[in-house]
Amino acid sequence: MQSTEPLKRTPLHTEHLAAGGKMVPFGGWDMPVQYSGILAEHTAVRERVGLFDISHMGEFLVAGPNAEKALNGLLSNDVTKLAVGQAQYTLMCNHGGGVVDDLIIYRLEPSLYLVIVNAGNIGKDFAWMKDEATVTAVIDDRSERFAALALQGPAASKLSDFSAALPHFHIQRHTVFGKECWVARTGYTGEDGFEIFCEATDAAHLWRTLLEKGKAFGILPCGLGARDTLRLEMCYPLYGNDLSDETTPLEAGLGKFVALDKGKFIGSDVLVEQKAKGVERKLVAFTMTDKSPPPRPHYTIHANGGKVGEVTSGTQSPTLGIGIGMGYVETATAAAGTPIEIEIRGKKFGAVIQKKPILKKGT
After folding, report:
1. Cβ(351)–Cβ(290) under 8 Å?
2. Architecture of domain 280-363
3. pLDDT of 236-250, one tens digit each?
4. Who contacts 5 (Cβ-Cβ below 8 Å, separation ≥6)?
5. pTM for the whole thing?
6. Domain residue ranges in the chain
7. By the 8 A CB rule, do 139 and 129 touch?
8. Is 76 in contact with 104 (CB distance < 8 Å)?
9. From 5, 9, 30, 106, which residue has the greatest number of CB atoms within 10 Å?
């Protein structure tokens, strides 16, 4: 049953329409899936530079003397290891070890953190953090005040004056084309690039200026379609597809972002037990070996004459020119190099499990 709530719009909605963006519902938002085409936009990011509106993502500020302790009890990674200006990928788990959300956290000041959450989870995550924090900290949802742009591709650094001073997985305060912003260097494409967090009222100016300055480098505005193909080539998980309340970080192959030695956090008891016993299923990447339609979520995965799992993400890779995907399979079938079959429209097509990432190029 679809929601009857009206779709939310980012501060760049008018810019998307003016640029010919094809709009689709995504996580409760009206977002561009493409402008000039997914293939062209994907290629622009891999070879030159592309610009994404990521203002639909949620932004929380967590502050106060107990902020570090509160976050460390809510999140899987070890927040105490973050120096001011550093970023960290982490997960927020429920009491059964399932993933409430995956997110990026930035330490802006000794007792101030910026937490980026997935668009469809803003309300859920905010309520969870407020209800489940074991110590008192100020948790402030600033999502409506913030806008965010992602500049991605090998030429991204040529469009900015902050690239030399900003290491990967860091965030700094910068003036960008006359506007005060937080600029991060994390990314979701496998290419170099920057996330620019600004006041919502400054977003249109930055969008237009970056597109104008980027013309010399072949910049394209890019939509959700290219964002999905780019992240899937790199095997970056997407919440709602590859991660959910029913999947644990260990099953998803994200154990390096789970600090089981830091002390208790929500879900840690279950994850300690799961690590000791081993997981029964794993999230694997695969490439199609037969010429086939693109694999899609919920297609079944077969091996040794039986069903062993299900596809969670799938597409036609613009870079490789073949079908690629990810899915959960029984652990016995999860080794790289294992031949499998994907059932597509009633017919089975050959595929092989690959070591992640599928695209070996990238940062």
Report:
1. yes
2. Beta Barrel (2.40)
3. 999 999 999 999 999
4. 28
5. 0.96
6. 13-56+145-233, 58-139, 280-363
7. yes
8. no
9. 106
